[in-house]
Amino acid sequence: MMKKRLLIANRSEIAIRIIRSAHKLGMYAIVFRSDKEQDALYLKFADEIIDAKDADDEKPIFLNQQKIVDLAVQHNIDLIHPGYGFLSENPDFAALCIANNINFIGPSPELIRDMGLKTVAKHMAVEAGLPLVPGSEGPVANAQDAKEFADKIGYPVILKASAGGGGRGMRIVEKPETIERNFKAAYDEALAAFGNGDIFIEKYLQNPKHLEFQILGDKHGNVIHLGERECSLQRKHQKIIEEAPSASVTSKMREEMGAMAVRFAQKIGYYSAGTIEYIMDEDGSYYFMEMNTRIQVEHPVTEMITGVDLVDWQIKIALDEKLTLKQEDIKINGWAIECRVNTEDPQNRFSPQTGFIDKINFPQNSSVRLETGFLSGSIVTPYFDSMIAKIIVHGADREDVINKTLNALYNFNIIGLKTTVPFCIAVLKHPDFINATYTTRWVDKVYTPDMLENEDDEVIAALAATIMYASEYLQLQGDIPAYKNDALNVWVLNKRLNY
Ligand code: ADP
Ligand code: ADP
Ligand code: MG
């Protein structure tokens, strides 16, 4: 039988992640070479590369639906995996793939369209009996209606774009005097960014936690959930550190929230991997927030504690396979944490960093799973988002995984660009994280750059660099075995701690 040809319409770490699954399932993996990132690491893992130069008047390749599908047809592609990001939640793109006889790896265009509008999703969630944050049933018609509504539920409120995503399209309104102005601004922004100006209102929860349930459904009506992830460590509504399970979810809650997620997915006829997001108030009440109809950045924490390969299942489900896993097969083993490594300077308001990575040294041991699209010598361009790697660590329990993650972070040395690694270290050492009391407001309310370890960056960086070069040199000479390299890293770690 001819090998199936799977095209990945995405880049960086997620492209490599999907290539791994394609290979495991005996498929050819094909990727695009963007002219904005000619030597990217993911290109080295693919079986075939399609050159995709953007003409001056064209959208960049990863946003250019028609061009992706045209090139896919030319190259006899059987399946397209969109990764995460813009096209993965674009119903027109899914429909375009299908219209061209290409299997789109994800749910149907109709499901993507419905869940892409938060107001529609919320309406369907109510029908399935899920609790909602107090707020408007659907979009509010104008600024005056917004004001009347907010007066009714009380301030603060949050104005949200129905079509919003990626942490964008939200405005918090503290008092009645500013709601009309905010509504107008939100409307204009939403229309410009998402092509849809619908705005709805929710009560703004002051100190909530973000909890989400991973689900898998097939095309034969089977749906299971794989437990929760806690993603409360956010900056500007975007996740930075995620963990699974959540210390705030009891087994009774897990059963209840998981069953609700499954019921909802079943009711809408959902298939593929998907995530039901909940927001939980300080008093423990939780509410449905939205559904993401794609693989998520933080899917590895779920994989690590359940042993289920979510991307494999996405592909198999797209090929009409039946889910062979039953709910009772899903067992939670230990604890996992993911830290996103973004090229942003935590010392300086997370300002984006671009340019050369002179040297990068990754943590390596059996508890660590590293997902990255970058190596020493890679260039971080301003054209894509700032996440260059994810460090995912597994431990026996929460305390164990926090320690192991800190160890991994200390062994993630990068020279050339500032990253969120020192920020993640500060978070993992903070009592609010250790006690699991952190909420989505933690970065805003608690974090200050002086929590970053007080080390002389230059000296430590130079030290780490010397050790990295020296240990690599010695390894090349065959003089020291790899584990000695670990010993050197531990030495750097101790040096940092005692500095
Ligand atoms: P997840 O829910 O999987 O954690 P994120 O919210 O971090 O995902 O978004 C996944 C990726 O998609 C990010 O890299 C983000 O840049 C991008 N993205 C998705 N939708 C949007 C949007 N509307 N605006 C900006 N970025 C977006
Ligand atoms: P997106 O599509 O951008 O992911 P979400 O609706 O999932 O949008 O919200 C993203 C984040 O915004 C949440 O994780 C939470 O931190 C914050 N948020 C959303 N709604 C509320 C609310 N009603 N009260 C407080 N915070 C909220
Ligand atoms: Mg969300």
Describe the structure in your own words.
This protein has 499 residues and is of the alpha+beta class. 36% of the residues lie in helices and 24% in strands. It has helices at 12-24, 65-74, 91-99, 109-116, 118-127, 143-153, 179-194, 251-267, 299-306, 310-318, 398-410, 421-429, 431-434, 442-445, 457-476, 482-498, and strands spanning 5-8, 28-34, 48-52, 79-81, 103-104, 157-165, 168-173, 199-203, 209-217, 223-235, 238-244, 272-280, 286-292, 335-342, 344-345, 351-352, 355-356, 359-361, 368-372, 379-380, 387-395, 413-415. The strands form six sheets. It has an eight-stranded antiparallel sheet with strand order 13-12-9-10-11-14-21-19. A five-stranded parallel sheet has the order 3-2-1-4-5. Strands 7-6-8 form a three-stranded antiparallel sheet. The longest helix is centred in the C-terminal third of the chain and has 20 residues, at 457-476. The model has no long low-confidence stretch (mean pLDDT 93). The protein binds adenosine-5'-diphosphate (ADP) (2 copies) and magnesium ion.
Write a brief caption for the model:
It is built from 16 helices and 22 strands. With 499 residues, it is of the alpha+beta class.
From the spread of the alpha carbons, the general shape counts as globular
Instruction: Bin the helical content.
Output: 25-40%
Q: Low-confidence runs (pLDDT<50, min 5 residues)?
A: none
Q: What bound compounds does this protein have?
A: adenosine-5'-diphosphate, magnesium ion
Distance from N terminus to C terminus (CA atoms, Å) equals: 61 Å
The profile of the biggest β sheet is: 8 strands, antiparallel
Secondary structural class? alpha+beta
| Number of alpha- plus pi-helical segments | 16
User: What fraction strand?
Assistant: 15-25%
Strand order of the largest sheet: 13-12-9-10-11-14-21-19
User: Cα-atom Rg, whole angstroms?
Assistant: 23 Å
The average pLDDT score comes to 93
Number of strands: 22
